[in-house]
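Methods: example folding runs. The two proteins below were folded one after another, and each record is reproduced exactly as written to the output file, sequence line first and structure-token line second.
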Amino acid sequence: MGRPLVPLSIRVEDQAQLMAWTRRPKTAQGLAMHSRVVLGAGKGLSNTAIAQQLGLTL
């Protein structure tokens, strides 16, 4: 097993901006994907869970 997860705290304003980037049609896809990864980490998901959910590889 890996290292224990360090809680990621995302401010409400930052979370709102990340969500906006994931929903906006003109957002670059790389930025949208990074935003989804950060939001997943903010929910306490493991890197593996985030990767599986988003169809990424580690």
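Second run, written to the same file directly after the first:
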Amino acid sequence: MNKNKHAQLSLFVLLGVIALVLLGVSVYFITKPAAVVEEDKPVTIKTFVERCLQDTTLGGASLIAVQGGVIYDVDEMLDTAAIDIENKVAYGYYNDKNLVVTREIMQDEMSDYIENALPSCINNFEQFVGTTVEHGEITAETTITINKIIVTINYPIKYDQGASEETIDQFNAELDLRLGYIREIINEAVEAQIDDPFFIDYTMLGQMAQGLHEFKHSDVVIGGQQPISDSIDIIPVDEQNYLLAINDSGLLFLSAFEIKQNNAPLMEILEQFVVTEGEEFIFTVEVEDDDSEIEFSDDSGMFDISANGLIRFTPEIPGEYEVIITATDPHGNYDSRLVNFVVEEKQIGVTNDEVVLE
């Protein structure tokens, strides 16, 4: 009997309501229109631009998080339409490789997004009726730290201020969002998956959610962190993929993980052995498996199979004996075989090399 428990698929028993709640949040982020700052009373040009920059940065952070660290497509992205998420999500773990987007790439993606999206919010300064505003191109620079997103833009603006003419070109925005920290959590989870491709370390994820995990694969100093405000969850997509979802202070980060299928061990052993009473029998069970560590067991009183699959014993009583031999991998997948041992009575004065003629 060859049976594969597929222990790693136990993640599919997660409550669907969690996934639905998270999906609702992500769809909101994706479909949220470009921010437009509306004021009840006139504000300065600088205040107006920086409020637009704040809103645009928040929109970019929400989008980059829900798409796995990118705003614009990369080579390996998971189509999540099967679970009603319209956008694709970048893989963090795929084909046994760490594909987590670097902070540098995230910063560049954020800067590009802000340069493209900010003009929609500013809307050519139409709010400032009666003021002549001239402006140049927007150049953004984004810094993502563990706890903050900091954006500085160079945006040369010239406008009328009464009888005088004013110029300004530097604007800033800062968000207290732990995008960098969440990225480090994803990276740590990917490294753990690489170490054991067939196992999801829920204990480690729980420790990271509580801020208790000691990071082993980060190139920055994490320091003491507060627990994740909402949750860290696994969202099944299909039998080959799942999403790691981290929801912290309203920022939902999704990262796609490929599920590596762990096949059950496959033993190479005959269905029947004919042995002779009083003569030593030696046989080593060979196994094909994805894992190197296999545990052997048997239900026989004649012998005990060794850790490396060696069967070695000297039968004493003639007869037929059915023995179940099992090979189990570290993930609970196993192969069990019913093997028949026929113990023949030893004929006095005849060795195994002699032929008895009637």
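Comment on the second run: The chain has two domains: 2-258, 266-344.
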